[in-house]
Design goal:
The chain has 283 residues and is α+β, with helices and mostly antiparallel strands. Helix content is 24%, strand content 23%. The strands form three sheets. A five-stranded mixed beta sheet has the order 2-9-5-4-3. A four-stranded antiparallel beta sheet has the order 1-7-8-6, covered by helices on one side. Strands 10-11 form a two-stranded antiparallel sheet. Strand 4 and strand 5 form a beta hairpin. The chain binds a DNA duplex (16 and 16 nucleotides) through residues 1-3, 53, 68-72, 100, 117-122, 158-159, 161-162, 166, 169, 171, 178-180, 227-229, 267-270.
Length: 283
DNA sequence: CACTTGACCTGTCCGC
DNA sequence: TGCGGACAGGTCAAGT
């Protein structure tokens, strides 16, 4: 669930809440969620970066705390006396730590950074910048970069026999797209997710990339998508799904043509399409 | 080699 | 009410 807009929203929150803070202590509640060969205590966060769906929290000693939220990860900063208040109805999380809390970092201003991860797929790793380069080296372009198109074209054309949705989900082709924004971008570009890349024109592929960038920009403005349990660094849910055109809209009319949105399976993933707007080309 | 499927986990929902 | 099973989707390893 956390895709580019969600991770970017978390990054912006951590920019405000964690950068400049020094780690005083680390409490690992689930061993598999935290990997390091050297202590994190005493290190200070100096920058919060993002590449694809990975958060990169640079440390003042040249190392980096890399975080991947995978499906159910959350990074939430709370003050010591913050009970998680607010209204239970619009809050997805209550008092922390809770049963999904895997790692807790104590920060020097009295706040704590909670890494929650219900399904334990996510991870935190303290690594060198060299390792960061290795982890990010094979990634495709960021879809919102101005020069993403020529690189995307070069990479996606290596997968002419693949269905276009699988190519969009391949982080080595284009970075940061997951199931929600793949469906949204393909609808916007009027391209069928099961179309083979080789059957699509450059023009159609460029339209898909541009739609992906646009839908992600919109989503960042709305704080991302909360499908199940995504929240930002302050524990707030995102509003994008209230405006989604096809994702989780099966049975509803297409806002462009009125046909009924259907849910199917493409590339092994739940996939939402307008069967009238998104026709499948032969080949 | 290119591509697809299964595994990793846990919680939720659905049918019996 | 309880229980089995399908499903959710990011990524990597294993299989075709």
């Amino acid at each position: 669930m956390p895709e580019l807009p969600e991770v970017e929203t978390v990054r912006r929150g951590l920019q405000q809440l964690a950068v400049g803070r020094t780690v005083l202590g680390v409490d690992v509640l689930n061993e598999g969620s935290f990997q390091t060969e050297s202590a994190l205590d005493g290190a200070r966060f100096v920058a919060a970066r993002r590449r694809a769906k990975m958060l990169l929290l640079d440390l003042d000693d040249g190392r980096c705390l890399a975080v991947h939220l995978k499906m159910t990860g959350q990074l939430v900063v709370r003050g010591a006396d913050d009970w998680g208040g607010g209204h239970p109805s619009d809050s997805l999380i209550g008092e922390l730590p809770d049963r999904s809390t895997r790692v807790v970092l104590d920060l020097d201003d009295g706040t704590r950074l909670f890494f929650n991860d219900q399904r334990k797929f996510g991870w935190m790793r303290v690594v060198t910048q060299e390792t960061v380069d290795e982890m990010t080296g094979g990634l495709g372009p960021e879809p919102m970069d101005d020069d993403a198109w020529p690189r995307f074209r070069e990479l996606v054309r290596r997968h002419d026999r693949t269905v276009v949705k699988a190519a969009l989900l391949d982080q080595g082709v284009v970075a940061g797209i997951g199931n929600i924004y793949a469906d949204e971008a393909l609808w916007g570009a009027r391209v069928h997710p099961a179309a083979r890349v080789g059957a699509l024109s450059d023009k159609a592929l460029r339209r898909v990339l541009e739609e992906a960038a646009e839908v992600m920009t919109t989503s960042i403005d709305l704080g991302g998508s909360t499908d199940r349990n995504y929240v930002d660094a302050e524990g707030r849910r995102g509003a994008y799904l209230d405006f989604a055109r096809v994702f989780r809209r099966e049975g509803q009319p297409c806002q462009r043509c009125g046909a009924t949105i259907v849910k199917t399976r493409v590339a092994g993933r739940g996939t939402h399409i307008c069967p009238k707007c998104q026709r499948l080309p032969r080949g």
